Amino acid sequence: MNKQLCVFLCKIFCFFQIIRIFVANIDDMDPTFDFILRIFVAALLGGVIGLEREYRDKSAGFRTHFLVALGSALFMVVSAYGFEGALVTENHRLDVSRIAAQVVSGIGFIGAGMIIFQKNAIRGLTTAAGVWVTAAIGLTCGAGMYVLALSSTFMVLLGLEAFNFFLRRFDSKRKGEEE
Questions:
Q1: CB contact at 8 A, 56 and 119
Q2: Mean pLDDT over residues 115-123, rounded?
Q3: Rounded to an integer, what distance in angstroms lies between the CA atom of residue 131 and that of residue 53?
Q4: Tens digit of each residue's pLDDT (9 = 90 or more) over 140-154
């Protein structure tokens, strides 16, 4: 990894530590502020992944990942808390996982549109997977599982960078063998 990216990842890690400390005191928070925080953190984490994709000049960049994470978190918050008084009888039960499952299906559809088969090569698979995991991170933030979302974001960034590093090394070895 280059020096700028290492510094950037260190800054993100420090920011995540600050958020983790803040989240530890979330029990006494107003529910509306809690919902806004969930959506904000999701958008922030999605934006961080999107910045990495934008830096790599991929088709789905900052705005796409930002919106996918924000939308996923919003759907999760609405499915978990938006219908709390709508069904007040014992014969009815809400299943908050149903909307989350539909988010996964919808993002799968969007991701399928990003994958292109061209000249015996598949393009866009990593981008589609990135949007898919960004939606999962958004759902995780919407559920209030901040530490899991932060850890997942860190692993996504690490995986994308490690993958890029190994591809460059592999390409340089292959070019050396061809000469």
A1: no
A2: 82
A3: 10
A4: 999 999 999 999 999
Q: Tell me how far CA of residue 171 lies from CA of 52, 151, 174, 178, in angstroms.
A: 21, 30, 5, 11
d(CA 150, CA 20): 9
CA neighbours closer than 13 Å in the CB half-sphere of residue 47: 8
Q: H or E stretch including 121? A: strand 121-123
**Helix ranges (DSSP H) in 24-96:** 31-55, 62-81
Token digits of residue 98: 């149903």
Report which DSSP code applies to 117.
E
Name the token pair of 75: 């759907």
72 vs 52, 61, 134, CA distance in Å?
20, 17, 9
C-beta neighbour count of 96 within 10 angstroms? 16
